[in-house]
Each structure stands twice: as structure tokens, then as C-alpha cells.
Amino acid sequence: MILKVEVDIKQILKLGKKFKWQKPEKCNHCNETKLWGHGFVISFFDGFEQGLYLKRYRCPYCHMVLKLKPIGYFKKFQADSRTIFSSILNRVYKDRYLPGISWGRQHFWFTALKRNIIAYLSNAWEKGVIAGFRELIRMNKIPVTSSI
Ligand SMILES: [Zn+2]
């Protein structure tokens, strides 16, 4: 479950995991009030070269994972899967990434995709990364996530 919070993205970038996230008051699912920290997931946003650590909490009662996300920002700036897919296509067929999006970010997508193919489709997967991307989408996985 994603919880949108008002935070200063620049501060998160500056402080990384040291950024003081405000702990949600209760679990959105069962109203349990004692939430546990549950690590971070790295997310990439357009306009920023580096990844952003987003804090997660876990409800000890119903096991719901709450991921905190900067309000309104994600929708607007997070690359859509179509963009990510063209980046992967470019890398595979032209051996270079798309212009206009940082190299580091696109390289992150590509390596995350390869890792997820091994994780979900096994290292016996022989149909290549493009087919792997489609297969992960079909399985309702995010092909370029780093949070497995
Ligand atoms: Zn709960």
C-alpha cells in the first residue's frame, strides 16, 4: 500500500536513508498503531540523477507494507513503463540508451530487469530481456523494480 506524504524531495536526496520520515500513525488496513520500520526501496524520478530512498513500514498485525511516497510527485515524474520499455529496446537493439534521460537511471532499469528475470523466470530463461520484460508485466511484476 502506498501512502502519500508531503516531504521535501531535495532533503531526501541530500540525506538519503538518514532522512527523518514521519511514521504513519496507524496501519491503513487494520488500524494497528505500532508500525515497524521495513527498510527502503530505491525509486528514480525524472530530473534527478540519483535514486531516492523511500521509507517503508510494516504492520506487525496484518503484515501490510506501507510505502511512503512524496505526494503528487510520483505520478508526474516517474517514468512510465512505455518509456522504460523503449529504453530497454534501445539498449538491446542499438546498444545505447535513450537520449534525454540520464545514463545511470536507464542503466539501473536494465540491470534491475536482468536481475528480476533471473529472480522470477530463473536463469534458464533463454528468450532474452525484451521477452522477459513482457513476461514480468504479464505476471503483474514491475520489471525494473529493485525491491525483491
Ligand atoms: Zn495492519
Number of helices: 5
Structural class label: alpha+beta
Q: Roughly how much helix do the residues carry, as a percent range?
A: 25-40%
Radius of gyration: 17 Å
Low-confidence stretches are: none
Q: CA-to-CA gap between the ends?
A: 16 Å
Number of domains: 2
Number of strands: 4
Q: Name the strands of the widest sheet in spatial order.
A: 1-4-3-2
Small molecules bound in the structure, each named once? zinc ion
Structure, described:
- The chain is an alpha+beta fold and 148 residues long.
- The chain folds into two domains: 2-77, no CATH class; 81-138, no CATH class.
- The protein is built from five helices and four strands.
- It has a four-stranded mixed sheet, covered by helices on one side.
- The chain is globular, with a radius of gyration of 17 Å.
- 20% of the residues are buried.
- Zinc ion binds next to loops.
Explain briefly what this protein structure is.
The protein is 38% helix and 17% strand. The chain is α+β, with helices and mostly antiparallel strands and 148 residues long.
